[in-house]
Structure formats: C-alpha cells, structure tokens
C-alpha cells in the first residue's frame, strides 16, 4: 500500500481540500454561532465530517454509475462548482445561500454541512480522485480533519492569533489557488472526455 504514497499528490490533495473546506475562513462564522449561544462539539463535528467524506469517497462513484456518469464527467462538473466557490472567495460575493428553513443544530448544520463537508468539498473529493491515488487523498482527508478539530477546539484562541486581516488574506490566497485548480481539473478531464469520444 505504501508504494502508492506520493508526496506531491498528498500535498496537492491536502491543499486542494484545505482550500475548499476553508476552516480558517469559517472562524468568523463559528465565533458568531458561539456568540449566539450555539453549542459546537469539536469531536462530534470532526467525526461526522470524516464519515461523510469517507462515505462519499467510497460510494460516490457507485452512486454516479447509477446515472451512467463517469468520474471525468463528474470532475468537469465539479471543476465548475470549484470555480464558483473560488469566485466567491476572491470577489466577496455569496452565490451559494443557505435556505431559510435550515435546522438550528450548530454541530451538524451549519458547521459540518455545509461549512466543512459541503457540496463543494464533497465534489472536490470525487473530482481529484480522477487524478490522484486513493491513499494520498485519504491521508489528505485525515490531516484536514485533524486541522478542523484543532480549529474548532481552539477557535477563541485562534481569534487572538489570526487577525481578521490575516484571515481575509488567506481567503483571497486560497481563492486564487482554487481558481487555478478548477481550470486544471476542467482542462484535464475535458481532454479525457474528448479522447474517449474520438
């Protein structure tokens, strides 16, 4: 199994997921929830998010097969969603909006879904599977979940360390990286689709 480990793939997968999950960018949202008296269980939220990622990682492709959709097609669609998320981060606009009747349980909604394991992150997970080995992606998921746990556990302390300006800068930086990743995912998998047709 270890022969499939690749540092470049692991680091790429890690940063792609880190950028999409954007747990540092979620700190202001988490602080606002706590200020309103909402309870957030760091361990439970991390475990639920991990389970969601693993289920989608292993069952997502089988689910797509029910609709006769291949990974490359899904990756192209996923790249468009990543593109929109990147534009949100860069331009400070809100395209994906939560419904008004969303549940009020802060641990699962909105912390686990959609902040951590949202549609964009799950789509990205399946999209990068078209390019990287499973082992490297899974290791990247576990490392990201560890960071998510730390951030949720130490939110108030991080607030004093990470000033709003720094968090804003991180958001812009990872937004640009996501934009570049979306373009690469789109062109690579579109090429595969065209080759399959020809």
What does this structure look like?
It is a single chain. This protein has 198 residues and is mostly helical. The protein has one domain (25-92, 105-197). Helix content is 76%, strand content 0%. The protein has helices at 7-21, 27-35, 42-66, 71-91, 107-116, 119-128, 134-153, 155-161, 164-197. The termini are far apart. The mean pLDDT is 83.
In short:
It is built from 9 helices and no strands. It has 198 residues and is mainly α.
How would you describe this structure in keywords?
single chain; about 200 residues; mainly alpha; 9 helices; about 75% helix; globular
Supply the number of helical segments: 9
The N- to C-terminal Cα distance equals 35 Å
- Overall mean pLDDT stands at 83
> What structural class results from the helix and strand content?
mainly alpha
- How much helix, percentage-wise, in residues? over 70%
Biggest sheet overview: none
Tell me the number of strands. 0
- Beta content: under 5%
Shape: globular
Number of domains: 1
What's the Cα radius of gyration?
A: 17 Å
Order of helices and strands: HHHHHHHHH
Report low-confidence residues grouped into runs of 5 or more.
none
